[in-house]
Amino acid sequence: GDTDEDDLDHHNEDDEMEVQVSLSPTTNAPNGSRCRVKIQKMATGKIELDVDGRDIGPGSYDIIVDGQVIGQLLMVGDAEESEGEVEFETNANDEDEINLTIDPIGLPVELVKDGVVYFTGIVPTPPDGPGGTGDDNGDDNGGGDSVTAALDKMPGLGPEASGEVQVQFGLAGVAGFEVEVEAIPEGDYQLVVSGTTRGTLTVALDVDKTRGKLRFEVIPDGAGELPLDFEVAGHPVSIVKDGTTWFSGTVPAAP
Hints:
With 255 residues, the protein is mainly β. The chain folds into 2 domains: 4-122, Immunoglobulin-like (Sandwich); 139-250, Immunoglobulin-like (Sandwich), CATH 2.60.40. 2% of the residues lie in helices and 54% in strands. The longest helix is centred in the first third of the chain and has 6 residues, at 4-9.
């Protein structure tokens, strides 16, 4: 219900930033089914995670974030039509919300039933609220939303290996573009967007695993940022070394 405590929680819409992504269906997911993840971060640091599914088939599905089961999505209905939704919140205070014990932002997420994976993806990164971190998050172009997408890795890479792209959308369009890879051999890799090499990703050991990162901004204002003077939204992207494609995918087209 709308208790006073609730109103305190939601006192200012500007303090809440949310972003939603559709997870990618595996071949096990029925045609026409979908699963979405929505995440919202309050200015207080509180996180709300919402998972909803449609027409996946009735039953209880494990929601697995970074290898850990955080809860279940209960799909109600029949084989043709079913729906379900579950909400998680840090320090949950509603009986219909489940306590969120980990920070899921940027982590891999899967929807699994009886060991079978139906949907996969990455929990998106919500844009910083007012007074956020030092990075301007594309504020040169009037703020905006960040969307992250996981890249497909070539066969034979270990389970730790991962690549992802993140796009920041400002009011005037794309404001920033970032590529990050982890747990692949050290060395220099080419970032290729729509067939054109746009930069060199240097992968080196960082504490416990190898990492490499490239960041482009329309108005570069930080160390190591490159000028974003080419189109990225909706374009194919790959990470290549010595003619071999290690990761590939498509840059998100819109927030």
